[in-house]
Design a protein that fits this description.
single chain, alpha+beta, FAD/NAD(P)-binding domain, D-Amino Acid Oxidase, Chain A, domain 2, 3 domains, 5-stranded antiparallel β-sheet, 11 strands, globular, binds flavin-adenine dinucleotide
């Protein structure tokens, strides 16, 4: 991290995007170019008619088009309406609480930090607005009190020095999402699905923007070429199935919580033995691969120094992925799909 910092912009691995500002920019540009927008509108239904696709809102308005792009997020009403969650694996119900804090101070504040081993998962991230810092607690367990979990973390011996002058500054947020594995195909009857509606939070802001852009571009081409069908938007269909699903798979992971298997002291030991800086990246797939490879190389040392931990590492490899997912599902709330 410090090495990267010394390299200035060349050492920067990512930039934080304020999604609200970014979207506002796109919307303003669209409006200026003559796009018609309907704000504060709750879309409740979608169906096909001979001449195209119809979307209905809660006020009784109908909107007709040649294609529809459904990008209504992780709990997508349109995806449920279309029955497209059938066949996706339900991975649990995720809840998150986040605060913007002022007065946080420690080295390497530019890093995105995930703290493992706590009751809830704790993440820390720089904020786009100077002077603010982002802290969040999340869990798949409805019973966990996220505020309490965060307080335990902020006041713990190891991390309290970072937060001794901290107070809640900007705004705080919360969300509850039912998480499913990805959809194998993001197109049905001239309806394109994009962003979290088809994937999950792993697609991240840039992934969602990328899908939205690709879908919009594909629809423009299809309309221009008067090819109002799947072939017309094959650019998006192929991008989704080959470049996204083909490359990253359907997602889902094992659902295993390390804290069910390793004590805080075990994790302390495992963190302490990684002494080379790892590759800097904000790509979650690369992060998990890098961590896996790092510990694979350290297995002989762990076997030597802590055979008890090695035994746990081996036993965890034999745990069926469904075991962790079943625990998450027991603690979640499946919505009607
Ligand atoms: C807790 C949490 C933390 C995350 N942290 C990060 C992070 O640090 N970095 C990162 O890159 N990604 C992060 N992600 C993932 C990222 O936020 C999402 O992948 C991305 O924002 C999805 O964008 P989207 O446009 O597909 O969906 P959304 O941002 O959910 O947008 C969907 C839009 O559709 C609207 N909508 C929904 N239903 C209707 C309806 N019926 N009618 C009309 N409009 C409707 C909603 O109001 C919303 O504006 C996080 C996700 C979660 C849950």
């Amino acid at each position: 991290m410090n090495e990267n910092k010394k390299r200035g912009n060349d050492g920067r691995v990512a930039v934080m995007v304020d999604k609200g500002l970014f979207i506002k920019g796109i919307v303003d540009e669209g409006l200026a170019a003559g796009v018609k927008a309907y704000f504060n509108t709750n879309v409740i239904d979608v169906w096909n008619e001979l001449e195209g696709v119809v979307v209905a809102d809660s006020k009784g308005n109908y909107y007709k088009g040649k294609f529809v792009i459904a990008a209504d997020g992780v709990n997508s009403r349109l995806v449920r309406k279309l029955g497209l969650n059938q066949g996706r694996r339900w991975l649990g119900t995720y809840k998150d609480r986040a605060w913007d804090m002022e007065g946080v101070e420690f080295d390497e504040m530019e890093a995105l930090i995930f703290c493992m081993g706590w009751e809830c998962s704790i993440s820390l991230a720089p904020h786009v607005h100077e002077g603010l810092y982002h802290v969040a607690a999340a869990s798949y367990d409805w019973q966990l009190d996220l505020e309490d979990g965060m307080q335990k973390y902020l006041t713990s011996k190891a991390f309290a020095p970072w937060f001794k002058n901290a107070r809640v500054g900007g705004h705080s947020t919360s969300c509850v999402s039912n998480i499913y594995s990805s959809m194998s195909n993001a197109f049905i009857n001239n309806i394109l699905i994009a962003g979290d509606a088809t994937w999950m939070q792993e697609c991240a802001i840039l992934g969602a923007l990328l899908m939205g852009w690709k879908a919009g571009h594909s629809v423009s081409l299809a309309v221009k070429q008067k090819q109002i069908n799947k072939e017309g938007v094959s650019d998006y269909v192929n991008f989704y199935t080959k470049d996204l699903i083909g490359r990253y798979g359907m997602g889902g992971g094992s659902g295993l919580d390390f804290s069910d298997y390793f004590s805080p002291e075990d994790m302390e030991y495992m963190a302490s033995i990684v002494d080379n800086p790892l590759r800097s990246t904000l790509d979650f797939y690369t992060i998990y691969r890098t961590i896996g490879k790092t510990y694979l190389d350290l297995f002989p040392r762990i076997q030597d120094e802590r055979p008890d931990i090695m035994e746990k590492l081996f036993s965890i490899r034999n745990v069926h992925p469904e075991v962790g997912l079943q625990k998450r599902r027991r603690n979640g709330f499946l919505t009607v799909s």
